[in-house]
Amino acid sequence: MIDIINDTLQASIDTKKSAIAENDQRLVKSARLMAESLTAGGKILLFGNGGSAADAQHIAAEFVNRFQTERVPLASIALTTDSSIITSIGNDYSFEEIFSKQVTALGRKNDVAVGISTSGNSPNVVKALKAAEKVGMHTVAFTGKGGQAADMAEIALTVPVGVTARIQESHILMGHILCDLVDRILFPENF
């Protein structure tokens, strides 16, 4: 059991290192995009399924409440949290529409849409990124090796492995890095 624990730890470390090395410039670009949008009165909309839904909520909470420094709340919404909206859209239309209809209703030009999908092919995430593009929003996709979401997003933050757990661990690390970078851009006096 100890060997399994240590092997898992090493696999997580290795995956995170390769993901950050692959995405460091894209993380900086994403943080600048988010900071510019927030400064202009925009917001960040995040969405995903399952563990990715939890990541969307986690990152939105870091922006709205605080990350590591005291500062004003930043406009961010996880589109995974309103069960009445999600179930009414799923029932009346389809599960594929649960995020795109919210993006169309809430998104504005120059807001940032963040779609999270370990496969990169979740139909509702892909459809929401397309809706965001139509609205004139910037798009960021967190994916595994790629997929449709990565291909269509303005910025793709990819994790080059096939193990969902390692992808999700890297996604939350990249989400935390974005929160930190955005705070440092917007509130340099706090550092």
From TrEMBL:
Residues the entry annotates as binding Zn(2+): 58, 62, 168, 176
Any one GO BP annotation for this protein: D-glycero-D-manno-heptose 7-phosphate biosynthetic process
EC top class named in words: isomerase
The SIS domain, residue ranges: 34-191
Catalytic activity: 2 D-sedoheptulose 7-phosphate = D-glycero-alpha-D-manno-heptose 7-phosphate + D-glycero-beta-D-manno-heptose 7-phosphate
Annotated positions binding substrate: 49-51, 62, 91-92, 117-119, 122, 168
Cofactor(s) it depends on: Zn(2+)
This enzyme's EC code(s): 5.3.1.28
Single GO molecular function: zinc ion binding
Localization per record: Cytoplasm
Recorded metabolic or biological pathway in which this protein acts: Carbohydrate biosynthesis; D-glycero-D-manno-heptose 7-phosphate biosynthesis; D-glycero-alpha-D-manno-heptose 7-phosphate and D-glycero-beta-D-manno-heptose 7-phosphate from sedoheptulose 7-phosphate: step 1/1
Manner of cofactor binding, per the entry note: Binds 1 zinc ion per subunit.
Keyword Zinc: yes
UniProt signal peptide: none
GO CC term, one of those recorded: cytoplasm
Keywords: Carbohydrate metabolism, Cytoplasm, Isomerase, Metal-binding, Zinc
Keyword Protein biosynthesis attributed: no
Job description of the protein: Catalyzes the isomerization of sedoheptulose 7-phosphate in D-glycero-D-manno-heptose 7-phosphate.
Record family assignment: Belongs to the SIS family. GmhA subfamily.
Other observations noted: The reaction produces a racemic mixture of D-glycero-alpha-D-manno-heptose 7-phosphate and D-glycero-beta-D-manno-heptose 7-phosphate.
Protein name: Phosphoheptose isomerase
The organism of origin for this protein: Desulfoluna spongiiphila
Taxonomic classification: Bacteria, Pseudomonadati, Thermodesulfobacteriota, Desulfobacteria, Desulfobacterales
Gene name, Swiss-Prot/TrEMBL: gmhA
